[in-house]
Automatic annotation (TrEMBL):
Its EC number is 3.6.1.15. GO terms for molecular function: ATP binding; ribonucleoside triphosphate phosphatase activity. This is Nucleoside-triphosphatase K1720_10480. It is an enzyme of class 3 (hydrolase). It catalyses: a ribonucleoside 5'-triphosphate + H2O = a ribonucleoside 5'-diphosphate + phosphate + H(+). CDD domains: RecA-like_Thep1. It comes from Thermococcus argininiproducens. Residues 2-152 form the AAA+ ATPase domain. Coiled coil: none annotated. Keywords: ATP-binding, Hydrolase, Nucleotide-binding. The lineage of its organism: Archaea, Methanobacteriati, Methanobacteriota, Thermococci, Thermococcales. Has nucleotide phosphatase activity towards ATP, GTP, CTP, TTP and UTP. May hydrolyze nucleoside diphosphates with lower efficiency. It comes from the Archaea. SUPFAM superfamilies: P-loop containing nucleoside triphosphate hydrolases.
Amino acid sequence: MKLFVTGLPGVGKTTLVLKVAKEMQGLGLKIGGFTTQEVREKGKRVGFKIKAIDTEEEGILAWVGEGYPRVGKYVVNLEDLNRVGVSAIRRAISEADLIIIDEIGAMEYKSKDFAMIINEVLKKDKPLLATVHRRYTERFRGMGRLYVLTTENREKIKDEVVKELKTLFSFKD
Ligand SMILES: Nc1ncnc2c1ncn2[C@@H]1O[C@H](COP(=O)(O)OP(=O)(O)OP(=O)(O)O)[C@@H](O)[C@H]1O
């Protein structure tokens, strides 16, 4: 089962996957993959952190400034993306019950290793919950269910995702 979640920036995609991960961990399942979260300084967004779900290892995914590769005003830190993010996916492919990837977007695709491991995950049968930037959803058409998150439906969709996964893993509600 592959579940994809998209929606406008800040709508709650990361919050959703964190809640789902916690609920599924509470049921004894092994969750792998990574999440990304914005970093704010004095109320302004200055970058993004990346964190492995299993080891809680952290890194900097991108930061405002000069440099390469860049996405908008951010410079992508390929070293941390690969060290934290790609490695977490690699571990999840072999060890986890559910892979969470938050998110699949322009910054992440700057890494060739990331692009390659995404293709690997898509070929596997292993359950996946991924947030996808709206510009990239077309790539995953027909591969699984796509949820479009809004502030109005985000709680309902979180419950639905948990329900789908519980059914998959044969837990009763
Ligand atoms: N279900 C929710 N209830 C209340 N607040 C929420 C909920 N979901 C998200 N938020 C709040 O909205 C803000 C943005 O959430 P989050 O980082 O999850 O969004 P996102 O879609 O992942 O953002 P981005 O596109 O930047 O990755 C956070 O401050 C978060 O606490």
